[in-house]
Amino acid sequence: MLTTDVQKNTITSNTRFKSAPNYYQEFEDFILENDHPCVMAQTTFKQNSVNFEVFEESLDSASVTARLFTAIKDYIQSYQFESNDFETLIAAFPNHPQVDERSFERSLWKQLQLLHELDTKDWDATVSADPDDSKFSFSLNGVSFYIVGMHPNSSRAARKAPFTTLVFNLHWQFEKLRAMNVYNNVRDRIRQRDANKNGSINPMLKDFGKQSEAKQYSGRAVDNSWKCPFLNKNAEIS
């Protein structure tokens, strides 16, 4: 694993790659130079508020899970919740094969399932643990996340990336934006920019509480027959 933490304009890295391409720089250039639709993504890079983790294995590899979970816990522990600045955690998998949207979706949910199996903390009580519930959000280490899957073959510009990537955004951040009375403005700007890039607004994007956000994680357009593959290990069996 290559770890790149960006704080106060300082980048440190520790790598096991024989040669270490600057994946952070490549991803930052992709976001900023291509004028990525997500203004929040642009802001976090401009403010050096990105925790960037690179894994040499594939996204769906079980050997990644423990290290990825440690990165998530470290991110939560170091997060400055009292600040109005936002931070994000990006997990990059540059060696994951370039696949179609369905294959990427399967890999994404396989890794999320593995993370859940490893997690010993209770589900964040502020959100639902049922992926069919409109108030579902994925919980890790007791904290809820909105997860953004990105890969080179995504059909949406906002979900394309130079390599396979998972972005972990704290659900708390969206509530913070609401408390700051800027959520609607930020949301509308992102959706309009997405529409400008793709010719239409992403049909999967819904506000929290309108439909399960599980449908949004992979970026693939799904219909009402789609069933989330995630199984909550603590769910009661009827």
Plain-language structure description:
- This protein has 238 residues and is an alpha+beta fold.
- The chain has one domain (2-216).
- The protein contains 6 helices and 7 strands; from the N terminus they run E-E-H-H-E-H-E-H-E-E-E-H-H.
- A 7-stranded mixed sheet has the order 2-1-3-4-7-6-5.
- Strand 1 (2-7) and strand 2 (10-14) form a beta hairpin.
- 34% of the residues are buried.
Compact summary:
With 238 residues, the chain is an alpha+beta fold.
Keywords:
alpha+beta, 238 residues, disordered N terminus, 7-stranded mixed sheet, 32% helix, 6 helices
Strand adjacency order, main sheet: 2-1-3-4-7-6-5
Structural class: alpha+beta
Question: What is the approximate shape?
Answer: globular
User: How would you characterize the largest beta sheet?
Assistant: 7 strands, mixed
Quote the beta fraction.
Answer: 15-25%
How many individual domains? 1
Distance between the termini: 41 Å
Mean pLDDT equals 83
Secondary-structure element sequence? EEHHEHEHEEEHH
pLDDT < 50 runs, ≥5 residues: 1-20
Number of strands: 7
The number of distinct helices, counting runs of at least 4 residues, comes to: 6
Cα-based radius of gyration, to the nearest Å: 17 Å
The helix fraction, in percent, is 25-40%
